[in-house]
Amino acid sequence: MGNHCPSITPVSIEFYGGTNQALNSSSYGQSTVPNAVICGRDCHADPNCKSFSYHRCSRVCELHRGTRRDTNLVETTGSVYFDSRQDTPNLSVEYLDDRYCSCKELLKAGYNTSGVYTIYPAAYSGDGLRVHCDMDTAGGGWVTIQRRQDGSVNFFRNWTEYRAGFGNLTGEFWLGNAALQGLTTFGGPWVIRFDFEDWYGNTAWAEYSGFQLLGGAYTLSYDVYNKNSTAGNSLWQIENRPFQTEDNHNSFFDVPSVCQGGWWYDFIPCGKVNLNGVYYSKNDQSFDSTDAIK
Description:
By secondary structure, this protein is α+β, with helices and mostly antiparallel strands. 12% of the residues lie in helices and 27% in strands.
């Protein structure tokens, strides 16, 4: 007398996708996954899932209990909607211009020259966001958020200016705290990298993964310091600190005015790093080692 295992018939569902479309209805499940294939796998494994939308820039996967009607699909750049109806691809929306979510996507598409580009991250799907892309450093694909190279731009600015950004993307600039927050809210985890060079051409760098700006105070947050960095860990002292300017600070005394910049200052005046502080030239012998120098 033997034991017999019941046979299991595999169930297969074929999904059809409409590009630059998303279902305009509430989803019962959301997760962050690396690509649409994983999103489809999750939908296939859930008997309640009848369709799904995947948003490339934010990497958000939405599972739906129902499928589309002709009126509840919305045109959404960078998204794709899948269900089992064979006519769904006919609803795809094609764009004449290429819209990329990040500098990394531009690099993968063959844009390997550093310069100013327009990207379309999740928070800027309309007109996009003008950024400088560094396609040379550490494999390329970096959004440059700050550059100081000759002292031509004053970085002792107020809260509104730091929020909006200032300077010129082809020269010295600060991208802006609002843009930084919009970028790091979706599509992560993000890595922030600091590159330094002294007057004699010596260089150093530091990287931190899981970088974000949180809340209305643009609080600095990160997960892990890259121990291979050559510049040392200077952010541990200001982790979870709010951004401060001379007209918006929470210190016992006006640290931003003392340090002549806007930054995530600690209570110790200028702390271990003050990259938006006074820019000194080689011949100026009165600089503080934490200030911005070249």
